[in-house]
Amino acid sequence: MKLLLKNKRALITGGCQGIGLAIAKSLAQEGADIVLADLKPREQAAEEIRALGRDCVLCQVDVTDEAQVVGMFEKLGGAPVDILVNCAGTYGPVKRIAEMDRASWDSAFALNMTGTMLCTREALKGMIARKSGNIINIASNVARRGLVDRGCYVSTKWAMLGFTQTVALENVSYNIRANSILPGPVDTPHLDEVMKIHASRDAITLEAMATSWRDGAPMKRFIEAEEIGKVAVFLASDMSSAMTGQGINVTGGFIMT
Q1: How many beta carbons lie within 10 A of that of residue 31, not counting itself?
Q2: Which residues are within 8 A (CB) of 47 and not within 5 positions of it... i.e. 6 or more apart?
Q3: Among 40, 135, 226, 227, who pairs with 178 as Cys (CB 3.0-4.6 Å)?
Q4: Where do the domains of the chain lie, and which CATH numbers do they carry?
Q5: How far apart are CA 137 and CA 24, in angstroms?
Q6: Integer CA distances (angstroms), 109 to 26, 35, 90, 168, in order
Q7: Measured between alpha carbons, how far is 174 from 165 in angstroms, rounded to an integer?
Q8: What is the pLDDT of residues 165-222, one digit of tens each?
Q9: How many CB atoms lie within 10 A of CB 157?
Q10: How far apart are CA 199 and CA 197, in angstroms?
Q11: What is the spatial distance between Cα 153 and Cα 140, in angstroms, rounded to a whole number?
């Protein structure tokens, strides 16, 4: 069977756990060598990629730190980054806009958007030179709706869609594509953390919160991280060669437009 991403190299931020690691594995299964960039790199994550027969490099990086991002790409040297997946992010403060403090707001935007911009900027330098590349940004279903108590997170994800479309337009002549994935609630430890905070604020049990979120979509289940990985493979490969600037819903039917 022909591998869809043979001879490609993919850099995934936030790649050592959750959605990021699932995407990394999916890309590796299709032949891509992997760079796992994470604030807390885990050798176990790298070993899981190598077990699939692919090369894997671990990079410790705070994507909000410009010098660290530039340094990471310099260390990668002449080895190209064909695919960039911006997955590093935070759920941000769980509070209403009327309660919002500037520090929490700035911190979430720094990670979710400034980090995405810095990594994209550095990856584009090589992609433009080679006239080839693929950028995938992990947004959220809330990039197309509002959500009480999550105004900061919602704002970063709406911004990500506009950013993705702009990158797509600016670089289409270089044969570079940029698209976003908009997941619904994905069954990861990260989701559990967020639901616990919401359950506490709403004075309900975690089980009741989980049921509410799980049943909120027509499919009445959480999304599996591997399902996000499959969509990433589609967007990173020539199967989606006519697509750029798109936001792909992977929400169990919760968002359909």
Answers
A1: 17
A2: none
A3: 135
A4: 9-186+224-250 (3.40.50.720), 187-222 (no CATH)
A5: 14
A6: 28, 24, 9, 21
A7: 15
A8: 999 999 999 999 999 999 999 999 889 999 999 999 899 999 999 999 999 999 999 9
A9: 26
A10: 5
A11: 9
Exposed (0-12), middle (13-18) or buried (19+): which is 218, by Cβ within 10 Å? exposed
Contacts for 167-174: CB closer than 8 Å, 24+ residues apart: 167/120, 167/124, 167/135, 168/244, 168/245, 169/245, 171/124, 171/127, 171/128, 171/133, 172/244, 174/127, 174/128, 174/131, 174/132, 174/133
SS3 per-residue string spanning the chain: CCCCCCCCEEEEECCCCHHHHHHHHHHHHCCCEEEEEECCCCHHHHHHHHCCCCCEEEEECCCCCHHHHHHHHHHHCCCCCCEEEECCCCCCCCECHHHCCHHHHHHHHHHHHHHHHHHHHHHHHHHHHHCCEEEEEECCHHHHCCCCCEHHHHHHHHHHHHHHHHHHHHHHHHCEEEEEEEECCECCHHHHHHHHHHHHHHCCCHHHHHHHHHCCCCCCCCECHHHHHHHHHHHHCHHHCCCCCCEEEECCCCCCC
d(CA 146, CA 144): 7
Q: What is the Cα–Cα distance from 244 to 240, expressed in whole angstroms?
A: 8
Q: Which residue has the tokens 């935070």?
A: 90
Token duo for residue 218: 């027509």
Measured in degrees and rounded to the nearest 5, phi and psi for residue 61 equal -155, 140
Tens-place pLDDT, residues 232-253 = 999 999 999 999 999 999 999 9
Which pLDDT value is given to residue 220? Answer: 97
Tell me the two tokens of residue 156.
Answer: 């970063």
CB contact at 8 A, 20 and 45: no
